[in-house]
Design goal:
This protein has no helices and ten strands. With 113 residues, it is an all-beta fold. Strands 2-10-9-4-5-6 form a six-stranded mixed sheet, with no helix packed on it. Strands 1-3-8-7 form a four-stranded antiparallel sheet, with no helix packed on it. Strand 4 and strand 5 form a beta hairpin. The termini are far apart.
């Protein structure tokens, strides 16, 4: 069955970095764009960016443009979210999802404090 498993969250000080991973299984990875979504306390769920696993450059939402980088390892069916220059506003639960489907992981918590 389909699984998306995020990892790499944790506690970090402002200005620090974290790298999240999302391991996918149970579907054809290269057939779907993959995205990262964030749910921060008291805020609406927001999309952070997407990557077309079949090729092409990632696209980012304005709040993370220039600080976050999405990449992929198709051989391992994994997408990554490198987060730099983290601020308190980046605190939240981070999810990966296969775009255009209902497939989404359980999330990993990032706390910037």
């Amino acid at each position: 069955h389909v699984q998306l498993v995020e990892s790499g969250g944790g506690f970090v000080q402002p200005g620090g970095s974290l790298r999240l991973s999302c391991a996918a299984s149970g579907f054809t990875f290269a057939d779907h764009a993959m995205g990262w979504i964030r749910q921060s306390p008291g805020k609406e769920r927001e999309g952070l960016g997407t990557i077309n696993t079949g090729g092409g450059s990632p696209a980012y939402a304005d709040p993370v443009e220039g600080r976050f980088t999405i990449s992929q390892d198709n051989a391992k069916n994994t997408v990554f979210l490198q987060m730099n220059s983290l601020t308190i506003d980046d605190t939240g639960a981070y999810y990966c999802a296969a775009c255009g489907t209902a497939y989404q992981g359980q999330g990993t918590q990032v706390t910037v404090s």
